[in-house]
Amino acid sequence: MMDDAQVTAWAIDAGRGDREAAAAFVRATQTSVWRFLAALTSAAEADDLAQETYLRAWRSLPSFAGRSSARTWLLSIARRVAVDNVRMAATRPRTVAMTLPEDLVDVNGGFDQAIAVEQLVAALRPERRVAFVATQLLGMSYEEAAEVCGCPVGTIRSRVARAREDLIEVLATGSSRKRRGNGDAAG
């Protein structure tokens, strides 16, 4: 796990024009940003969306005050970039599945198992997928995920719990259909 205080310090220094701090900030956050975006959209789009995330962040970096961790701030920007991308691409079908990071794929389970897990997570309702990926794949706290998603911590807890229930239901029934529910508090 990266040191959020150090990453935040690099972001603040980068906002003041320190090129070395800017490079350190990008190195420290690029994997999390890419993984987050790949889970929300697709691996094929993650590179471009990560670049867009950093472009937006760079424009705002001079005004970043460090009231939250830089990682949380940056992933909030990444979420908005992903939402904007989905809105723009609403008319074209999504054809590429999410790619799990290598450290989460069981090499003994093989390629088929990795694809199955990717499809299960990709089939989650978007708000549940964001909460699940942020907390379970990226290791963010529920508080950080709530800040990234712009909702209460209780909503994140609910979304993660419902995502787990959805995954368990699909695994138990062998069905790939999405679970129908009453929805989440706050979306």
TrEMBL record:
The keyword Cell division does not apply. CDD domains: Sigma70_r4. Residues 116-167 form the RNA polymerase sigma factor 70 region 4 type domain. Residues 26-89 form the RNA polymerase sigma-70 region domain. InterPro entries: RNA_pol_sigma-70-like (IPR039425), RNA_pol_sigma-70_dom (IPR014284), RNA_pol_sigma70_ECF_CS (IPR000838), RNA_pol_sigma70_r2 (IPR007627), RNA_pol_sigma70_r4_t2 (IPR013249), RNA_pol_sigma_r2 (IPR013325), RNA_pol_sigma_r3/r4-like (IPR013324), WH-like_DNA-bd_sf (IPR036388). Gene3D superfamilies: 1.10.1740.10, Winged helix-like DNA-binding domain superfamily/Winged helix DNA-binding domain (1.10.10.10). Signal peptide: none annotated. SUPFAM superfamilies: Sigma2 domain of RNA polymerase sigma factors (SSF88946), Sigma3 and sigma4 domains of RNA polymerase sigma factors (SSF88659). Keywords: DNA-binding, Sigma factor, Transcription, Transcription regulation. Pfam families: Sigma70_r2 (PF04542), Sigma70_r4_2 (PF08281). Belongs to the sigma-70 factor family. ECF subfamily. This is RNA polymerase sigma factor. It comes from Micromonospora maritima.
